[in-house]
Amino acid sequence: MTIDVFGHHNGTPVLRATLVSDAATVSLISYGAAVQSWLVHGPNGPMQATLGFDTFAPYPEWSRSFGVIAGRIANRVRDGRFHLDGVAYQLDQNEGRNHLHGGSEGLGNRLWSLESDGRAARLTYTSPDGHMGYPGTVHFTVDVVLDGPTLTFEMTGVPDRPTPIALAQHSYYNLGGPAAEHVLHILAQDITVTDAANVSTGELAPVAGTEYDFLTPRPIGDMELDANFCLAERAPAATLSGRDMTLVLSTDRPGLQAYNSVTLPQIPVPGLGGAMYGPFHAVALEAQDWPDAVNHDTFPNIIATPDRPYRQTTSITINPR
Asked: Where along the chain do its domains lie?
């Protein structure tokens, strides 16, 4: 069966679609349009590449955007505020004073419509005008296609009026072994500078000679990694290699947030005999627009309109080593 019922959220079924190729089996759920499981077919059997839960019940309480489509604006907006066409907007402030990943009821915890033919899936959701403080109604579509070892996300957001949109696919990857030993390569000369709350200041800083220099592949180590890299190349933009698997990410977005789950709390994993997810357990690679771009004129523009809807294409390939 291509689609089954994964659980229920407030009495509504949460659907799961399973995509299968000769190289991988990927399950997507309608809650948050999330990748629930990504099994890579290795020579010794399937290997789980992403963080997730085997049942739905833990997701609302314990998921930290595991596998979701984050938005309407992924990452942080300073004070949850921005101006557009002379009008001030106040967004939901769900991380202290700031707005994170679309707010407390962002796209990553909404129930999407889901359909699938077993090779591809389509998820759709209409966000109403004023939701979480955003102007305009936006119809979102995420098409997900599994082709061999490659999962491609085609995302669109069609608004009925000008409004900011900046999505990110938010899977956490553990490719075998400790995350500190994963080898990371990001083709970026700069990062966007952040303040103590990890909100963009509007400045850029070169990575050369700093701990953020992954222009030459190297292990992540024990650094606290949570930064947006300004991509110089986007195909591929980054590679990540663990003990068992290697990932290659390509995107048309100008930024990539790399996060080694440094602030992830201890999260129980049902069915795994007391196992926990926690700090430094995995690495998230989030293709995105530059954070807080809506408040910085020098950053790439994220205002979508009915004539210029939001679009993103991101492809992620995972192969056994």
From this structure: 3-320
pLDDT at 272: 61
Q: How many CA atoms lie within 13 A of 13 on its CB side?
A: 9
E strand or H helix that includes residue 61: helix 59-62
Backbone angles phi, psi at 132, to 5 degrees: 60, 15
Q: Cβ of 23: how many Cβ atoms within 10 Å?
A: 18
Q: Under DSSP, is residue 120 helix (H, G, I), strand (E, B) or coil?
A: strand
Neighbours of 268 (CB within 10 A): 13
The model carries a pTM of 0.97
Question: Is the distance from CB of 43 to CB of 255 less than 8 angstroms?
Answer: no
Please list, in sequence order, all residues whose beta carbon lies within 8 angstroms of the beta carbon of residue 272, skipping any fewer than 6 positions away.
Answer: none
pLDDT reported for residue 270? 78
288 SS3 class: strand
The token duo for 30 is: 């309608």
pLDDT value of residue 271? 67
Q: DSSP secondary structure string, 215-269?
A: SS-EE-TT---EEEEEES--TT-EEEE-SSEEEEEEESSSEEEEE--TTPPPEE-
Query: What's the rounded Cα separation, in Å, for the pair 280 and 286?
Result: 16
Angle at 165 between CA 186 and CA 283, to 5 degrees: 30
Residue 273 pLDDT: 65
Cα distance between residue 212 and residue 111, in whole Å: 36
DSSP code for 180: G
Beta strands in 117-212, from DSSP E residues, in sequence order: 120-127, 138-147, 150-159, 163-164, 168-170, 172-173, 183-186, 188-194, 200-206
3-320 classified as CATH 2.70.98.10: yes
d(CA 50, CA 65): 12
Beta strands 276-277 and 283-288, pairing class: unpaired
Residue 117, token pair as written in the block: 């033919």
Residues in the chain predicted with pLDDT less than 70, given as ranges, are 1, 271-274
**DSSP β-ladder status, 188-194 and 245-251:** unpaired
Cα R_g (the chain), whole angstroms: 18
